[in-house]
Amino acid sequence: MSNSRVESHSRAELRNKIISAATLLEILLSGLVLIGLLLSMVPLLQWMPGLLFDGNDVEVSTFLQRALDIVIGIEFIKMLAKHSPGSSLEVLLYAIARHMVVGHESAMENLLSVSAIALIFIVRRFFFVPAFGAHLPDGHPAPDLSPSQSGIPSEEFAARLRKHLHHDDTDTELEVAIEDPKYEDNTDTLLEAEVKEEPKPMEADELFDDFIFNYASDDALQRQRTVFPLPYYNRDTPSKIEEEFWKHDYLFTKQNYYTLLFDKEEDMDMVGDTTLTSVQVEWIFLKTRMVKRYYFERKRGMWMLEAINLREMEKGENEDFVEFYTRFVTDSVYQSKHIRHPLQFITIDPDDEFSILETTLDVDQWYAFRPVMPTDRLSNINYGQKNEDLSDTKILKVNGIGNGYSNIFYFRKRSKGWELYKYEDTSI
């Protein structure tokens, strides 16, 4: 390592120590202010009996003044904790509001106060740019800012904020810069971090479902785990996507649910299989009968996207069921004719949330209980299940994303065609 590199690292260490010391002093000051606010609440409690029995205008006004002073003190503590101009504006907002409520000023002064509040909202909404100090002392975006306010692209903003929130406090600024090749600052240390490390396995690589959600939501991780130039087949026309032209693909994470297709119940156990080495994520477009398939392979313990294929749905890969399902969810008359009577219904017992209730529904009850079913496209994660037209049973599992939603629809093929014979709702 060169002398300049050593000096740069030393400066970074010294700067981090100074920042840490300043942070500790701010924490100490915040603690003292908090103690003072708690002590100031004692007179409020003492005044409350007097307000109940013989309170007058003077006592009420004093009570409100003291209460609003405490509120402003709380916002001051939040300002010290957040390190962002947004919190400073909030302190000003509460201070002006206190002046209006208990100040007994003239109409003109109240008008000026209202104008000042309006100006604060305008500044917060339209003029809050990085020049105002939209970053914390360590270079990460302030946690109370939106991507547009920070001046950072939304994907990059989310990636940086996520790294900041989950990063070990003992890590140095240099280590952060090395781990994140897109990390930006104007310090000498970060100028030295030019080498992009190879992607490393993470805990989420063990279970594909954990990995795919991280992959879809984190732009930086997505680029690390995509093989560039990425082979892309559009109706068998090959091409390659260079990294500079890659756009963040959110997959199904922009929805509040995703769907899975299985031929039999035992296939659903594949979801938790940690030995998988090859998985395909699919979009099935119902109206156009197109399938977009993402090919993921696990090599050296890491899941990587190696190709994308967009093509028409072929015979033998759910074509018959997809044709039925498309009409089933869009034609209520057709739907009523393809529901078993009575319909098996499994749900959580309303009297005991730890018990399962098994009952039946008639057609009218189905229309009262039925959930909204996807009508435009279906997602699917192929862990190794067959998903063939030759199967006379199909299971459509609808999982909510972060909302506890869980519905399973069981279909089977009879002489008259497909029918829904069982419906399971175990949503929390």
What would a concise description of this structure say?
The protein folds into 2 domains: 3-127, no CATH class; 206-428, no CATH class.
Tally of alpha and pi helices: 13
- Helices and strands, in order, run as HHHHHHHHHHEEEEEEHHEEHEEEE
In angstroms, what is the radius of gyration? 30 Å
Portion in helices: 40-55%
Number of strands: 12
Unreliable stretches covering 5 or more consecutive residues: 1-9, 129-134, 146-150, 167-196
Shape: extended
Which strand-content bin applies to the residues? Answer: 15-25%
Task: Look at the structure and give the mean pLDDT.
Answer: 77
Largest sheet: 6 strands, mixed
Notes on the structure:
This protein is an alpha+beta fold and 428 residues long. It has two domains: 3-127, no CATH class; 206-428, no CATH class. It is built from 13 helices and twelve strands. The protein has helices spanning 3-54, 57-82, 85-102, 107-126, 147-150, 154-166, 173-179, 188-192, 208-217, 219-224, 319-328, 332-337, 363-369; strands at residues 230-234, 237-241, 257-262, 278-285, 290-299, 302-312, 339-348, 356-361, 377-382, 393-400, 406-414, 417-425. The strands form two sheets. It has a six-stranded mixed beta sheet with strand order 2-1-6-5-4-9, with no helix packed on it. It has a six-stranded mixed beta sheet with strand order 3-10-11-12-7-8. Helix 1 runs antiparallel to helix 2 (57-82). The radius of gyration is 30 Å and the shape is extended.
